[in-house]
Amino acid sequence: MALIKCSECRKKISDQASACPNCGNPIGHFEQNLMHHTRNPLSGVTLSGRVFFAVMGLLTLVAVCVSAFSPGRNKGNNSAVPSKRTPTTATQATVASQLAGLTYGDFSESTLTEVTESGAGRVTVGYRAETFWNETGLVEDAIDTDMHVMRALFRCPTVSAVEMKTMVDMTDPYGNTTIEPGVILVYSRATFRKLNWKGFEDTLITDPADALNIADYYRIEPGIYKNVHMDNLHGDSGGWWQK
Fold first, then answer.
1. Is the separation of the CB atoms in 219 and 236 below 8 Å?
2. What does each C-alpha distance from 228 to 5, 134, 136, 177, 225 come to in angstroms?
3. Are 111 and 127 in contact (CB under 8 A)?
């Protein structure tokens, strides 16, 4: 049994009464059905029906969220976001990936001071020399290390030339110490391709000056060069790499 309002005196009466006990107003079929029409619309729905409505609502919400936050669309623009492509030029990032994990002589990721690409595939790599006995040993080790690092870099087809800078601590007459390029060695891809690496690797040990003499450009810092004892060696080749 439920209570409804009398349409005449507006007092609550039983929906089973045939007339209002307060004013005698007869209760018609309309008033008796009015309460049923204003009940909770789900009051007569079974448990399985309620679950169905809940699931449908959840699926609708998910569909709206997926549409709103889809990564394939931009705000106010229906064009797809371009996918990330592997770089095809000798950028700093691709060069760094070639050097990742490479260790040879004083060269390692921890001694790197510079990795740049100045355009047209010309790459510059600088690293700090940390272990050498004297100036001759510094230059010999730099040549050996530079050639092996360049071999790794020229595996990248977009690298057209490599400039290697072996950085060392230089102290001026006033006692000021700065890190400067002690040895600079430059090879173009065309020159490097002429090398018979198996035979050339032995030359790096027996006569490292040959690697400088066939280079596109090299330079040894004057303060270092004056104390270097190597046959057929000049401090500066001159050449096209001058900046």
1. yes
2. 114, 8, 5, 21, 5
3. yes
pLDDT at 238 over 50: no
- Report the distance separating Cα 97 and Cα 95, nearest Å: 5
Q: Which of 242, 235, 210, 207 is nearest to 220 (CA)?
A: 235
Give the Cα separation of 239 and 241 in Å (integer): 6
- The amino acid at 208: P
* DSSP reduced 3-state for 17: coil
User: What is the spatial distance between Cα 83 and Cα 7, in angstroms, rounded to a whole number?
Assistant: 70
Residues 6+ apart with CB under 8 A from 235: 219, 220, 222, 225
Reported as a single tens digit per residue, the pLDDT across 199-216 is 898 888 888 888 988 999
Cα–Cα distance, 99 to 126 (Å, whole number): 12
The single-letter code of the amino acid at 113 is T
What values do phi and psi take at 2, rounded to 5?
-135, 165
Whole-model pTM over 0.90: no
- At 34-53, the pLDDT tens digits run 444 444 444 454 555 555 65
CB of 167 closer than 8 Å to CB of 179 = yes
DSSP assignments along 112-178, one per residue: EEEEEE-STTEEEEEEE----SSHHHHHHHHHHHHHHHHHHHTTSTT--EEEEEEEEEEE-TTS-EE
- Helices 92-99 and 135-153 cross at an angle (nearest 10°) of 110
